[in-house]
């Protein structure tokens, strides 16, 4: 993992603060992203966001995504000043073993998800192995999504 994340986790351990982990794409930011992150922040003392890499976004969302590259998505999320630390997830972050390694390394107290998060049961099982809890903090609102925003923009073009 990156040096900055190592330092963040070491400081967290010294301060004995609870940590909430969130992972996601966060491509075209909208109000539902903000609502979700604000609710996630309330779970613990610190909020850590693992941002999907551009390689992974293409795997998850298709060849035309992301709209904003990972550097820009990082800047956009940081501008909201909600997360205590944001890092880019590994490009090979597609297998259960990699998820397990990340949770073991970070040792969050909670992982916040929304009601439509994929693989929730798998995530819950991995987290439980390390004493962490999966928490649904936000109900998915189908009226807001980056995919829907892109679709609507294309219709207007």
Tags for this model:
single chain, 157 residues, alpha/beta, Rossmann fold, 5-stranded parallel beta sheet, 47% helix
Protein described:
The structure is a single chain. The chain has 157 residues and is an alpha/beta fold. The protein has a single domain, classed as Rossmann fold (3-Layer(aba) Sandwich). Helices cover 47% and strands 17% of the residues. It has a 5-stranded parallel beta sheet, sandwiched between helices. Helix 2 links the parallel strand 1 and strand 2. The termini are far apart.
Reading off the top of the CATH hierarchy, the class is best stated as Alpha Beta
CATH fold-type name:
Rossmann fold
Please give the largest β-sheet: 5 strands, parallel
Distance between the termini: 41 Å
What's the shape? Answer: globular
Q: Which residue ranges are poorly predicted, with pLDDT under 50 across at least 5 consecutive positions?
A: none
Short description:
By secondary structure, the protein is of the alpha/beta class. It is 47% helix and 17% strand.
Write the layout of secondary structure elements.
Elements: H1 3-15, E1 19-24, H2 31-41, E2 46-51, H3 54-61, H4 70-79, E3 85-88, H5 96-106, E4 110-114, H6 120-129, E5 133-138, H7 146-156
Parallel strand pairs: 1-2, 1-4, 2-3, 4-5
